[in-house]
Design goal:
The protein has 2 domains: about 210 residues, Rossmann fold, CATH 3.40.50; about 90 residues, Rossmann fold. The strands form 2 sheets. It has a 6-stranded mixed sheet, with helices on both faces. A 4-stranded parallel sheet has the order 5-4-3-6, sandwiched between helices. Helix content is about 45%, strand content about 15%. Helix 6 links the parallel strand 4 and strand 5. With about 325 residues, the protein is of the alpha/beta class. It is globular and about 55 Å long. Helix 1 crosses helix 8.
């Protein structure tokens, strides 16, 4: 497998050049309501308007493009809460690579259907959580002697997912100095933070799955956590060992938000911006609305990571208000 040995500015530049014209340069939209609430100018980086409905297409396309010819013939196996799997399915179809996506049994139906529609072999695990499903997926990959593609713990994925988003943000909002990022496995946040060495990085996570602060306290990556019941599956589970090593010294603070606060942030986005986003993407908005992001003194960008949420989940979210 053609893996990158480390995360470097050159790798991010390579990813940016490769993705130009292949993915969308997503909009950066000013938020009057969040700006008033936070007391500084705030923009939304709308990766929810990206191809396949999330930022994950960046890393998937770049990573699949680096497969060897033998790996392209054998196909790949990955694990996903949904968005990475949908992105890998898209990239694999583009390159003619067989793709097997292992997903938790709690996967959102819209994400599952999206992967199937793109031609992937989608296998549902016997587990609700991401970490147990990933362990099973790696065992399947070893048994079938096919490469396993990490959704986050891979330098090429970090460069494309986080590094290229950072580049677009710097171009569109040069005044911004504070960035609120969702953190699950940490691929987006690690790549973004690496590309923004002088910025204020606020990592946003689910309070029931706080892998980043637990890892900081332990001084090592907590890569596995017990499964929790949440509609924000993309921020459930442990953090990557490689991503943590990059992210830990670059994070200024961590904002932990609850399930109810996340769902309220989804409703808030509909009311104030008329955008439907998925619960995982709402953790950054929730951090602002609850004050958990802390006091901001400089212009900020809030990354909105995706929009993939099914009709059943939307009904539940709207009916709980």
């Amino acid at each position: 497998m053609t893996t990158a040995d480390s995360l470097t500015p050159e790798l991010i530049a390579e990813a940016s050049q490769f993705l130009r014209g292949r993915v969308r340069h997503t909009p950066l939209e000013f938020s009057p309501a969040l700006s008033e609430a936070m007391g500084v100018p705030v923009w939304l980086k709308l990766e929810s308007m990206q191809l396949t409905g999330s930022f994950k297409i960046r890393g998937a396309l770049f990573r699949v493009s680096r497969l060897t010819s033998e790996e392209r013939r054998s196909g790949v196996i990955t694990c996903s809460a949904g968005n990475h799997g949908k992105a890998v399915a898209y990239a694999a179809r583009h390159y003619g690579v067989p793709a097997t996506i292992c997903v938790p049994r709690s996967v959102d139906r819209a994400k599952y259907d999206g992967m199937v529609a793109l031609g992937a072999d989608v296998r549902v695990s016997a587990f609700d959580g991401y970490d147990d499903t990933e362990e099973w997926a790696k065992a399947v990959a070893a048994e079938e002697q096919r490469p396993f593609l990490s959704a986050f713990d891979d330098y090429a994925v970090m460069a494309a997912n986080g590094g290229t988003i950072a580049g677009e943000v710097f171009e569109d909002a040069p005044a911004a100095h504070v960035f609120l990022l969702p953190v699950g496995g940490g691929g987006l946040a690690a790549g973004f933070a690496f590309a923004a060495p002088d910025a204020v990085i606020i990592a946003c996570q689910h309070v029931l799955s706080p892998a980043l602060p637990m890892s900081i306290e332990a001084g090592r990556a907590i890569t596995r956590l017990p499964a929790v019941e949440t509609m924000a599956g993309g921020v459930e589970g442990g953090i990557g060992a490689l991503t943590f090593a990059i992210l830990a010294p670059r994070v200024n603070r961590v904002a932990l938000v609850s399930e109810d606060e996340i769902l309220e942030a989804v409703r808030w986005m509909i009311e104030h911006h008329q955008y439907l986003i998925e619960p995982t993407a709402a953790v950054t908005v929730a951090a602002c609305l609850t004050g958990r992001a802390g006091k901001l003194t400089e212009p900020a960008v809030v990354v909105i990571s995706g929009r993939n949420v099914g009709a059943g989940a939307v009904k539940r979210i709207l009916c709980e208000c």
